[in-house]
Each structure stands twice: as C-alpha cells, then as structure tokens.
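2024-03-11 09:14:02 DEBUG pipeline.ingest accepted 1 chain
2024-03-11 09:14:02 DEBUG pipeline.ingest length=361
2024-03-11 09:14:03 DEBUG pipeline.predict start
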Amino acid sequence: MTELNRQGEVWVFAEQESGKLSDVPLELMGKGRELADKLGVPMAAVLVGKNVNKLTDSLVAYGADRVYLVEHHLLGHYQTASYSHVLCRLIEQFKPQICLFGATAVGRDLAPTVASAMKCGLTADCTDLQIGDHSEPGEATPHTNLLHQIRPAFGGNIIATIVNFDRWPQMATVREGVMPMLTPNTSRKGQIIAVDADMDGFDLPLTVIETHRRPKKVNLKAARIIVAGGAGVGSRENFKCLWDLANVLGAAVGGSRAAVDLGYVDHDHQIGQTGTTVRPALYIACGISGAVQHRAGMQESAKILAINTDREAPIFSIAHYGIVGDFMQVIPKMIKAIRSGASIEGAAKAEINIAGAAAKA
C-alpha cells in the first residue's frame, strides 16, 4: 500500500485555452472548495500554459487558496506529453489527496494519462462527489474521509459510488454543467506558487502550427427556456414544430441522444448524460421517454413540462406538468394561445388534457 497523505490538498486542474479559462474548472472550484472544507485542507488550482498568470486572480476569486502556476513556451498549446509531464511532477512534489479534472476533450485525455503514470485510480464522468467512509470486507477499521465518486453505470441503469482507498491521489473527471458555478468573491486572497516547468531537453512529439475551433451553435447552459425533442418527434422535419415554439418563447432547442443519433437535431443541442447538463427555468420535453441518461442532464430544471402520447412514459415521473397527447397537435395550440397573451401554464391548460397537472413544490 502506498503512503496516503491525508493532509494533502484538493486540486482542480484549471483548463484554459489561448489564455481563457473554460467554464468547467470554474464549476469544479465550488465542489473542490466544498470537499476541501469538509476535509479541513487547502484547495488549490493548477494552472498550466504560456502567459496565463493573469488568470490566477479569477481562480482565487472562485475559491482557490493556492494556485500552482506553471508557464513555459512549450506549454502554449495542449499536448498530452508536455502537460502530463508537468502534472506528474507537481503531484510527486506536493502530494495532493484529490485531483479533479473536467470531463472535456482535454480532461478525458490528460487525466487517464496522469493516473496511469501515478498508478492510481480514476473515475470518469462523475455527476457528484462527496466525502465519506468505506469498509472493506474483513477489515475491522473503516477507511475514513474518502472521496466518493458517483456516476451512472451500466448504461445509466444504476448509480455507482466508487472509492480509491489505497492508491492516491484520488482522481476523477466531472461532467460539464453538473456542478453549479459559485459567485466569485473578488476580495479573497490566495497564494500564487510559481513552479519551474522543468522542460529542459523535453521534445514535443508534435508542432502545433495553428488551431481552429468551431463555436457551438447554441449555449444550452445559459438558456432560461429549452424546448427539447426525443426519438418520438419522428423526423428532422417534425422538429420544425419545436423550433416554432422556441421562437415564440425566445427559447433554445435541445434534443435527447436518440434524437441526435437519428439526425433530427445537431450534436451541439444534445442534453443528457453524454451531452450538456442544463438547469433552465422551464424545460419542455416533447416525445422524450425520460430514460435515466436524459434525466441526468435536465432533472434539476425549475419547471418541467412533458408532452408524450404514452401516459406511462418515465418523463412524467419528474415532470411538474404532463400533457398526454401528440406534440404535433399540442404545440400549434400552445403557440396560438401564447401569441394571444396566455402564459405557458395557461396555454397548456386551455387546449390540452393535462395528466398529472399538480405542480411539485
């Protein structure tokens, strides 16, 4: 068994691109702060790149007690070899007990490379993280204050809790959007620790000439209202009905993985376990059965209105309002009522038979 540093810090990898932090590490800062406070240890951000020192104040404002800053011209573009080299050296030197990464393209590449080099466990695509105890069969004394890494498993049919009790650091990647982003506190003070990159003689396997990133077509996380469709919509042409409702409401359009796989809507619009996690004020689900993989990405919406021809569809179990009917008939009536000045709730009740209409608290 390796020596476990129970006073080790909680680390968040502060992913950035071209000198701009992505939302994912900022979301993780809040959870990292919570875990560190529970353990009674500092929380630190690890910032790697070229000319990125200007980002340290933001990381402190979002909850970091310390920022480990590693700058070098060879770190200007993400490459697995250079970034994993830096992360492994930092872990060996400072011995954190928890390392968190966003489940982004970079995080999903970097985290397993580092975990393999450190010979420790890694849980991917977590939807929650908690501190708790764990008892191994036959052991009288439980392992205390471990990171409980919680994620859907077996195709989303169960929720698994995973612990790494004997090989540290405990490492996890966390899906985008599942952790609420805290409000930054610009009055916070933190320690900035500049660390030598130790890149002398290090040869990168690739030379990056230039990069191009296609911007997403829709920002689902920022949408206050989302109209989403599933496989039950039937075709890309039928999705036009959802776009019409979204235009009336000033809403964004989303889709389940089934709808994306069938080509009804583009991947940028995907909501669920393998898509974007959203928390809008209103979520209108059309032709979505409500599989657990989709519910994981939208069940924290403030209000959920479900439209489905199957009154036994699982989506109704989490919906605040449920309409049993054909969305191709329901939505045009809703659009007409809304244009006449009715609220969403009023539009639904005016023309449609509502099943399970009692709103949840």
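2024-03-11 09:14:41 DEBUG pipeline.report The domain at 220-355 is CATH 3.40.50.1220 (Rossmann fold).
2024-03-11 09:14:41 DEBUG pipeline.predict end
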